[in-house]
Amino acid sequence: MKKQDAFFEKFLPKSLKSLIDPGSGKRNYKLLRAILAVTMLAISIGPVLIVAGLGYRNYGDLVLKAEDQQLEWQLDGKVKSIKHMVKNLRSVVQFTARRDRYTELIEGDSLENLFLRLKQQYPFFADLGVIDETGIQQAYVGPYELQGANYQEEKWFGEVSDRGVYISEVYTGYRQVPHFAIAVSNYDPKTRQVWTLRATIDASTLQQFVNTIKTNASDDLFLINNQGVLQTSSAYYGDTLSQFSAPSFYGIQHDISLEGEYIFRAILQIEDTPWALVLIKKRFIHQADWKNFQDKLSLIVMACIVLSVLVICLLVSLLTGLISKVDDLQIAMLKEAEHTDKLASIGRLAAGVGHEINNPLAIIDQKTGLIDDLLQMSGEFEHKAMINNSVKVINQSVERCKIITHRLLGFARRTDIASEWLRINTIVSEVLQFLDNALLYSRIKVDLQLQDDLPRIMSDRMQLQQIFLNIINNAIDAIGKDGVINIITHKIAGDIRVVIQDDGPGIPEEVLPHIFEPFYTTKETGKGTGLGLSITYGLIKRLGGDITVRSHVGTGTAFTITLPIHNEAQNDRRQ
Amino acid sequence: MIDDNDKIKVLIADDEVEFASTLATRLNLRNFSTTVVNSGQQTLSAVAKEQPDIVLLDLKMPDLDGLEVLAMLREEHPELKVIIITGHGSFEMGREGMELGASDYIMKPVDLNLLIEKISDICLGSKKDS
């Protein structure tokens, strides 16, 4: 715990001790506010950001996976379509090259008729040729003079002889027009030789077909051969027969950058053909959904942050406000404690001084008394009158000193308090009886508003008498001549309150804070010791009570004494 | 003239010698018979020897505490009148003394007239013929 405390101490404002030191000033509330705010923000916004980040990533992965799958399905479908088309073309050529048709096809116009019929149904056929076992073209229908051409050395001729069927890549050939060929070989039982039917098909057929199966699901769709040469045109890579990269990989590739955008690229080989299908798709098929998700996520995160900031600012300002208030209260309490302590120290000092002076004063008093006695007894002599006068002045001075020492000794009251059940109203009346003459002499009227059914209080009679005596005496002094003193008693909660109010000149604002300080007096020298209210304050505090003062120059002064019905402070002391 | 026997016998017990002797002189001038002692022990023996009418007892003496002396005096001489003299300037010590059986108390510096008044009041009850 201590380690933690030390750790937090580093961040938290200076300890209370430094607050007592007037030089160090108050806590650094700005720093406290900043630390609290940053900590709370980190705690509240951190998890939101983490969750949002995780959500963003996972949803992204999910979208990517879904896109992958969709792309795979698409590609699969397209590849199947192309295969189907190629199969159809091959079937047509295979049907045309029925094995016993060799003789029929190389004679007369029959190949031409067949070609015309075929062309009616399949306009993309460019030419037809019948080739014998040795590779010599025996019959030909088409735009070129290829009758008798020898294909013996051609690679495709070897392949068709071996496998029975051959589909070529797209090439330009003699015509300089992209086309491809399908060749089918068959054994003619009549001539007992293997012959070949070769049909050339316009490459635009492939292009048209690819165009028809191209949907919005793909941004580019084209065929390539094994060397990566485009077999149909591509939106990104150019026209037919342009060079694309040779496929090193079949399947779906992610994160390829194309013209500054990330794309998916899928390449799939089409069986029994020299082609591979390439599908290019910009990433995020569900771009709208993805955007929507991003928008919503950022909205939620922003809302969380804004809300957190608002709530935290409010909380932090409330908290620091509270701490500041508590600090102020504590400082005030410490100051009051310090003040009380100061009073107690002064009290002890004063009592000590008072006692030490009181004894010699008693001797001076007796000696002057004796001189006076002797003077009375002796007859006239020189300077007798002067000595007599001096003795009188000494006596007056001793009297003044006596008042001071008695008040100083008042501080030395023993802490024991005699407790008994007392009626405040009775004590007020008793004190007023003491002061009857003074009140009469000063023509001061006392207006009593004493609550009849006040509960009795457990307190000290003598001390209460002295308290009231001091305050009423002060009121008499303040009024001087002709005035009114109001004395009000009433019960408030567990306390009894006595208000003693005079209509004297009032206490100036600058004097008011000092009136309970010892030796503070505004009376002319010799008239007041400045101890009366200070002693009164100490007595009231010792009885567990409190005294406050309100005063306005010109209207008068009111002292409010609050006394507890049960004095707990006193009970504690007794225990 | 008042006979010596009719005078009120006052025992002044105070460790402040000058105070006690001067007070004694002044009381003598006013027709009191006085004896001065300066400690608790002396007080106890002087009371036994002099049989005073009244004792002026200081509460602060070097050997014995004034209240202890008072308690002992009250025990041995229940009829003896005692006035407490206190240098503490408060009623409390006096009141405590009164609780222990003292007749009255007076604070230093002592107002002689007030003291004589108190002595007379207390002693008149037992010496009506003065």
TrEMBL record, chain A:
Subcellular localization: Cell membrane
Enzyme Commission number(s) of this protein: 2.7.13.3
Reaction(s) catalysed by this chain's protein: ATP + protein L-histidine = ADP + protein N-phospho-L-histidine
Pfam families: dCache_1, HATPase_c
Protein name from the UniProt record: histidine kinase
Membrane topology value: Multi-pass membrane protein
Entry's transmembrane regions: 31-56, 299-323
Lineage: superkingdom: Bacteria
Alphabetically ordered keywords of this record: ATP-binding, Cell membrane, Kinase, Membrane, Nucleotide-binding, Phosphoprotein, Transferase, Transmembrane, Transmembrane helix, Two-component regulatory system
Origin species: Desulforhopalus singaporensis
GO MF terms, alphabetically ordered: ATP binding; phosphorelay sensor kinase activity
SMART domains: HATPase_c, HisKA
Any one annotated GO CC term: plasma membrane
Residues annotated as domain Histidine kinase: 352-567
UniProtKB/TrEMBL annotation, chain B:
InterPro entries xref list: Bact_response_regulator, CheY-like_superfamily, Sig_transdc_resp-reg_receiver
Keyword Cell membrane annotated: no
GO biological process: phosphorelay signal transduction system
Keywords attached to this entry: Phosphoprotein, Two-component regulatory system
Domain Response regulatory: 9-123
Entry annotated with the keyword Phosphoprotein: yes
Positions of modified residues (4-aspartylphosphate): D58
Pfam families in the record: Response_reg (PF00072)
Gene3D superfamilies: 3.40.50.2300
Origin superkingdom: Bacteria
Protein name: Response regulator receiver domain-containing protein
Species of provenance: Desulforhopalus singaporensis
